[in-house]
Amino acid sequence: MTTTDLSPTAIQTPVSQTESDEALRYYSATQVQLIWWRFRKHRVAQAGALILITMALIGLFAEFLGPYTGTTRTSGVVLVGPQMPHFCNDDGCTLRPFLYGVKSERNPETLGMEVKIDTSVRRDIHFFVQGEPYKLLGFIDLQTHLFGVSEGSIHLFGTDSLGRDIFTRILLATRTSLSIGIIGVLIAFVLALIIGGAAGYFGGWIDYVIQRLTEIVRVVPVIPLYMGLAAAFPVEWSSSQVYFAMTLILAIVGWPTLARRIRGKLLSLRGEDYVVAATLSGAGPSRIIGRHLLPAFMSYIIVDLVISFPYMLLSETALSFVGLGLRPPTVSWGVLLQDAQTVRAIEQAPWLFIPAAFVVIAVLSFTVLGDGLRDAADPYQISE
Question: Which of 1, 215, 270, 280 has the most Cβ atoms closer than 10 angstroms to its Cβ?
């Protein structure tokens, strides 16, 4: 008499062709593909990446998107609040947005600026208008701006104490602040790879010397260091020279943390079999580090790199805000916030704090993007 084996181990669920193809596609995918597939499931991180890409494009085409240049002054509109476009007035509604007439005058008694809005004046907003000449991307001569008015002035975010358009200046500041963060982090990243890679791979006295150097850099008080370096900047330096000097300073101070992490990873990986095999095959240290060790945890390095951006960005903003970083005529978020340091500015012109909103949005975007990349860096983790 024959018996049928009905044990759970003997029962096999048939696998469909679709599931088989999906499994083959998953297990044959590269590390980059696995990270990308997991990152696509992180909607918040994608939103953060989209915001940062938008900010980068805004900074890249700031002169075109803004109606003026960063130094243009408009007489009669000093400390004017944000102007909201309208579509309807007493005469009816139109599809073309327009602005009311506005003028600022100083009160002889309080000495404060008072803004008067003239609803009888209508200024239509036109798109792709001819205005002040500028160089798009630094080398293309143009005069076309995205929007503007044929008469009077337009200030969507208001004006500062000199009558300059805050909207245009914020666009230009976005390019400066983001570029300092990106360039500073990339320079720090290269330094961390070289220094941390040498310490982790060679060990011995090289590791000892590098670790002591790292500790010296880490224990140096940051604020006094910045104060001394800011005072050392020659007065005759141009804004470009101060910009590059500030970027280098932030990069030199920012490499130790990432270098420590790279060193720790290399110390744990340099005894692996594939590293020993590469060494026996005659591969040099630079090839072993660059082709075998670093790619093994490059995804985590990228995550640390993205998370470092907010700290670099906040450092530049804070230093420029207190006068230790960039200085006019260079425009950054920190430089713009210098006008909002007093209680009088808070009371009379709260719109001068609008650049702070861009700082918060950028930092939050970098943070959620870093969290998403951190989750995606472990592509073999089972999704919930």
Answer: 270
Q: Which class for 353: exposed (0-12), middle (13-18), buried (19 or more C-beta within 10 A)?
A: middle
Alpha-carbon distance 223 to 243, whole Å? 18
Tens digits of residue pLDDT in 260-317: 888 888 888 877 888 888 888 888 878 887 777 777 777 777 777 787 888 888 877 8
Contacts of 187 (CB under 8 A, 6+ apart): 247, 248, 251
Structural tokens at position 68: 């003026």
Residue 191 tokens read as 């330094």
Q: Does CATH place domain 170-376 in 1.10.10.60? A: no
Q: What spatial distance separates the first Cα and last Cα of the chain, rounded to whole Å?
A: 48
Q: What is the pTM of this model?
A: 0.81
Q: How far apart are CA 153 and CA 25, in angstroms?
A: 58
All structural domains of the chain with their residue ranges = 73-163, 170-376
Of 289, 260, 284, nearest to 272 by C-alpha is 289
pLDDT in tens, 12-41: 555 565 666 666 666 666 777 777 888 888
